[in-house]
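FYI - complex with NAI, inputs then prediction.
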Amino acid sequence: MATEVHMPKLGLTMEEGTIEEWKVKEGDTVKKGDIIFSVSTDKMTNDIEAEADGVLIKILVPEGETAPCKSVIAYLGAAGETAPAAGAPAAAPAAAPAPAAVPAAAAPTGPAAKEVHMPKLGLTMEEGTVEEWKKKEGDTVKKGDILFSVATDKMTNDIEAEYDGTLLKIVVKEGDTAPCKSVIAYIGNPGDACGAAPAATAPAAAAPAAAPAGGNTITVIGGGPGGYVAAIRASQLGAKVTLIEKDHVGGTCLNRGCIPTKSLMHCAETYETVKNAASLGITASKVEFDWNKIQSFRQGITDKLVGGVKGLLKMNKVKLIEGEAKFSGDKTVTVTKTDGSTETITSDKVIIASGSEPAMPPIPGIDAPACINSTQALTMDHVPASLLVIGGGVIGLELGSVYNTFGTKVTVVEMLPEILPAMDSELTKIVKNQLTAAGMDIRTGTSVEKIEKSRKGAKVTVKGANGEEVIEVENVLVAVGRKVDPAAINASATGLTTLEANDKMETSVPGVYSIGDANGKWMLAYTAMTMGEIAAANATGGDMTFDRKSVPSVIFLGPEFAGVGLTEDEAKAKGISYKVGKFSMSGNGRSLVMGQTDGMIKVIADTKYNEILGVHMVGPRACDMIAEASLALRLECTVDEWIDTVHAHPTVTEAMREAMLAVNKQCLHGANK
Ligand code: NAI
């Protein structure tokens, strides 16, 4: 009898799935555990394994089509066997008369009974305990009947039968625990063969990332947040790891990016707070700043963290080589060390984490001495009187707002119609208004035509809706993105023309991984770290995949701006039926105390399940608070589950719960927008 292949239920809220790709075609032989198709939902794409050996005799749901969870989408059977007639109800095959070629047998040597599995009810569930069997052996069961209840450390769920038939055999008794997807019972016709019973308390699956037998040597190129994390994790997983860094460990993040920017930003915020403290009854007679001390503070933080990373590498037995690595063969790198000597290293696996460099657009005069990149902008020996920023992206706005606070006249020139184009456009407008109110001149839809040296610094010709204009400034900060150069590490010597990687972080050359800025997926320190953990696990025998859906965006401005998941524009463009909930920070007590009420939380939820699809916010602590939203998206949380979670008072987090309430038109401290 043909075995049904079902659309899986991959999460609590999944109701249907779309066949993204059939990995096998009709007539192909498959083994239990082979990947036979990939299914996508609005949240994820998953490869699905065959649950039985056999030949794929019929595909019912072709690629691109959607089917409800647990419906039959294909049949597996013996070679030459035909699928049940089209139109037969999905649950019918068990009740259909046995085909002539397979006579019904009285002894349990008949057709194989259907397996009942311990379900996987959430991302983190590894095993479950059968709390109660709602049927006993010999009982007739109908598809959809509650068959048993399963308990995990988090919840108890009633589980429905997936087939009609007789409950032939219970393998895992009440109170016993079994791994997810293991067989816990059999359903079929009397006389069907029930497979060998696995031990009821089989040990949980082996740790995915144990080091392969025979040792495993890994070379990591680049000691930024991606590379140092990959090196530490690979070493923790038993590999012998060499990390090569040509400059300072910590990479762009600690030395030239996130951390120094946030150090300067902290000084700017403190300066601003002290200047504006009179309304709180706190006055200071002469508020000044000392730029040299600010620069020492910035460098001190970096030095402390770089030293900390070196200590972590040592503690984790990672061999650090200071020098520049270039591929000189297959998984072979030659390092030119800082002392001038060279060393060639061949290893089992290589993880490329060589980062990116600021990009320079082909604007005439861009090489003028007044033009600086973000690295130079962090280490200026004085605060310039005026600064024109090319690029209204993350770097341009963060650094522009720092200098604006310290008194520089800042003009931002962005060629697109809006700044921060990837963020929710409604909230971007709030941010733009606030930056403008703080004194920044933001020109969108404007291009830079040319830059000429001048006595003051540079004369920049810009062209916008009102025609051309020349703006003379002391410095021009070029912040138009970053670029990756595979030739810088001679990647072709290991067979690579690009450093792109799949979601397991592996490049087109097996055993060579690429993470962080280098692979160009996301140029963010925190995605680089996650990718480092994934590459290290996969290079040591594990199987981890990068989850794009829960990656937050954070922009450290005054106010902070953060988001995760779909923006309203994206939901619209995808034709998703969605609801919106909004809450103004002016209704949040803690924000009022902090004097930061010009902000908003905006939630996008799907209309069918009330599932949270996106959370976007402008306001105090937004870049910290977004973590709760990332977790919600990762766990496929609904608006109602978020609302059911008590939030502490008085905190800014209450505003997020209010925005969730607004989705349900039940906002308590504001209008239901
Ligand atoms: P970006 O891609 O964020 O922004 C560059 C902007 O420049 C874009 O809006 C683009 O339209 C504009 N642009 C490009 N060419 C232009 C031209 N000729 N004239 C005018 N405008 C032009 O790149 P950005 O700001 O340099 O940042 C680089 C990377 O570093 C990004 O991937 C960013 O996400 C990351 N980063 C992240 C931070 C965070 O998470 N807080 C902080 C700083 C950087």
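Residues 361, 390-396, 398, 413-416, 421, 447-448, 479-482, 523-524, 554-556 surround NAI (CB under 6 Å). Residues 86-108, 197-215 have pLDDT under 50 and may be disordered.
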